[in-house]
Amino acid sequence: MLEAQGKRLPGYVVREFEDYLKCGRLEHGFLRVRCEACHQEQLVAFSCKRRGFCPSCGARRMVDSAAHLVDEVLPERPIRQWVLSVPYPLRYLFATNPEVLSRVLTIVHRVIGTFLVKQAGMTVASGAQSGAVTLIQRFGSALNLNIHFHMLYLNGVYDAAGYFWPVKPPSREDLDRITHTIAKRVSRYLEKAGYLVRDVESEYLDLMPDEQDAMNAIVGASLTYRLAFGPRAGQKALTLQMVPATDQEVKTNELVSHQAGFSLHAGVACKSRQLKKLERLCRYISRPAIAEERLSLASNGDVIVTLKTPYDDGTTHVVLSPVEFMGRLAALVPRPRVNLTRFHGVFSPNSKLREHVVPQRPPDKEGAKKPKAYSLTWAQRLRRVFAIEIEKCEKCGGPVKIIASIEDPSVIQKILAHLGLDRSQETHNRSPPPGLFDPAAALL
């Protein structure tokens, strides 16, 4: 369809779809694993390891990221989550210009970090600083492009000597001031950079290029909840309203602020040593874009996306044609070499306080001078989070060992034919990614 219009998707988006279709399928390669006790063998298919929309690989990355943050980055100090959403035009700018996104994120960190330092009764000039880990999420509940920031901040600051000073939670008035400062400074930066054009009567963002390529069209359609392709291109996606519309107002005690299209929320926090709650929070902010249980297939072939939380107007589902659904997925694919996890303050790699803040293990028996942060194996993390045991045989409980990696197509075909396995069959000992559609859970 795009080629007929003289447009093409970027190569990294095409590779995302191609690798996803091979993820978890035995005919594209696998590992042979064998129990050292009873010698029972199993086949484990390769995964695509992409970070766009694969539910299986996204879940694996979620577990790995959460365990890494809790075990090797975040200390046993109070942590507060700050969530920042930006106006719709900025979401388009951030999706197409990662350099601007990085600069804006630096501005946001300076505003919040300075607030925390002042809350502790100190000054930035004294060397006091807080720390934050930011995970950049690109998706909304309806699989629309919605770039926003989930920031895990220390609920306190470290002074120049490395001593931690906790601070009180922010008030609604504090959030209003912070949000207003962020909006003002970001707007000033964008105006100086030439993205924000000041008019006599209004201000607007001049972000749209003169000639949009295919990816720009997809991004623009996704963040405005409109359709990029298909017979309804340019129109809003079809929605289903299953519950009555509600007139919800922000609670007076809720820590959220709205200023000039910016929204800042800071109502979720973890106390010191609440490691289980902190890990659940880390898994939430690093979750994949798609949850299999929220996708279903209608009788006419359309894809039904169940919203995590109904909209205020009662909308509970979004209905997309297959082509429209693929357009939504394409918009969620991040550009190569764009890091979606950022470290600030005492957690940044060049911070002098980092080695005194992040969790450390005791020196080894040989008396290592610089203790290193410990790391769990992937199997150990699966066992800890999901209670999944993959290092032991399901039959006898003996240890399992990898004996071969099969990648030659001719050898793959011979092994699968010998075992009587269909070449389209997914592996049975891992959770394979779904196809683009799940016909078993149709709603209509």
Computed Rg: 24 Å
Adjacency order of strands in the biggest sheet? 11-12-3-5-4-16
Q: In terms of structural class, how would the helical and strand content be classed?
A: alpha+beta
**Helix proportion of residues, in percent?**
25-40%
Task: Please mark out the parts with pLDDT under 50 across 5 or more consecutive residues, or reply none.
Answer: 369-374, 424-444
Instruction: Calculate the mean pLDDT score and round it.
Output: 80
Count of runs of 4 or more consecutive helical residues: 11
Distance between the termini: 27 Å
Specify the oligomeric state: single chain
What overall form do the CA principal axes indicate?
globular
- The topology string of helices and strands comes to HEEHEHHEEEEHEEHEEEHEEEHEHHEH
Total number of beta strands: 17
Beta-strand residue fraction: 15-25%
How many strands, which pairing sense, and closed or not: the largest β-sheet? 6 strands, antiparallel
Tell me what the structure shows.
With 444 residues, the protein is an alpha+beta fold. The chain has 11 helices and 17 strands. The strands form 5 sheets. A 6-stranded antiparallel sheet has the order 11-12-3-5-4-16. It has a 4-stranded antiparallel sheet with strand order 10-15-14-13.
Secondary-structure blueprint of this entry?
Elements: H1 11-22, E1 30-35, E2 41-45, H2 55-72, E3 79-85, H3 88-96, H4 98-119, E4 131-139, E5 145-154, E6 156-158, E7 164-166, H5 172-193, E8 196-198, E9 203-205, H6 214-223, E10 238-241, E11 256-259, E12 262-270, H7 275-285, E13 295-297, E14 303-306, E15 315-320, H8 322-331, E16 341-345, H9 354-357, H10 378-386, E17 400-406, H11 409-419
Antiparallel strand pairs: 1-2, 1-17, 3-5, 3-12, 4-5, 4-16, 6-7, 8-9, 10-15, 11-12, 13-14, 14-15
